[in-house]
Known about the structure:
Elements lengths: L12 E3 L4 H10 L4 E6 L2 E7 H5 L19 E2 L4 H11 L3 E6 L2 E7 H7 L9 H4 L13 H11 L3 E6 L2 E10 H15 L44 E2 L5 H10 L4 E5 L5 E6 H7 L10 E4 L9 H12 L7 E15 L2 E12 L2 E10 L1 H19 L11 H11 L3
Parallel strand pairs: 1-2, 4-5, 9-10, 12-13
Antiparallel strand pairs: 2-3, 5-6, 7-8, 10-11, 13-14, 14-15
Helix pairs in contact: 6-7, 10-11
Amino acid sequence: xxxxxxxxxxxxxxxxxxxxxxxxxxxxxxxxxxxxxxxxxxxxxxxxxxxxxxxxxxxxxxxxxxxxxxxxxxxxxxxxxxxxxxxxxxxxxxxxxxxxxxxxxxxxxxxxxxxxxxxxxxxxxxxxxxxxxxxxxxxxxxxxxxxxxxxxxxxxxxxxxxxxxxxxxxxxxxxxxxxxxxxxxxxxxxxxxxxxxxxxxxxxxxxxxxxxxxxxxxxxxxxxxxxxxxxxxxxxxxxxxxxxxxxxxxxxxxxxxxxxxxxxxxxxxxxxxxxxxxxxxxxxxxxxxxxxxxxxxxxxxxxxxxxxxxxxxxxxxxxxxxxxxxxxxxxxxxxxxxxxxxxxxxxxxxxxxxxxxxxxxxxxxxxxxxxxxxxxxxxxxxxxxxxxxxxxxxxxxxxxxxx
Length: 403
């Protein structure tokens, strides 16, 4: 399946010099979650709704200070590649390029709805995060923010004070940031009429300044922010039905409960996207550029080395790997100096590292060491989903054969 029919060719771009206040207005006027930013006419990256709402900087700050790069995709690529790039790039909006030109965008919701009927081959239990971190209504917003950061997650089920398994609501990182930022602005005498509502994009009425409130903001309880109307599903529910639940509640996640309504897991749209990247291959998919420079390692040995290097990080699932080789003029005992760059697309983001070594085996070993250092230094991982077994992969692969 190609992304061609999913491309939205009607899109708006904002120059990097655009004031953040104008970005805020653009979010108010639409239901968009991200905006495209250009620099001198060239695509630069995106600014998300959350970035703008949670920014403590003055409104005259420029868009370029908030922009973050995201992967792009060609207009004739397939849906699996789009899903992989969204997961690896931590984005739900994928810019589509035609040569050097920005041709449109593909959105995660459109992609998931397009393949929704094929999702019925898997269940919530196949993709859910089972070891769920939760909070209680009395948990402070400061503690919730700390949990979001430490666990690298964006949704926290809220469980009853007297029953740690009964779900009474859900709170998202987005909602907490929007609430805290809005209230801090009010307490400093800002005009609340200029702030957006996180769910509707509309304006709140004025409440005036509340001096001194900022010191206590993070001590407020989660119940001030949590959403009580939540979409729940069962472990044996197929993913087509799970997506229906998310769409019904206009949510990016669904809480998995058992017959006693006790918490057993959570499924997010990222989990659904990730399931589309599964293949029926037993070996990790590895693309090699400059494969003619590989004289010591076979393609299978290279894949095994990458798997061995990342297996210890059980909370991280590698979706795909790309390895680039370049040859230098320098040699040692007839063995050329090679530059090796390893790019790992994972469910925790994209990791890229490079190094040089004599021969492909040495260069890859050093590059993988650099990747491991990057993982250890730059990430604190959330809870992992159960690995997809062979049966799961075989089931998922079936939908991909449809044209």
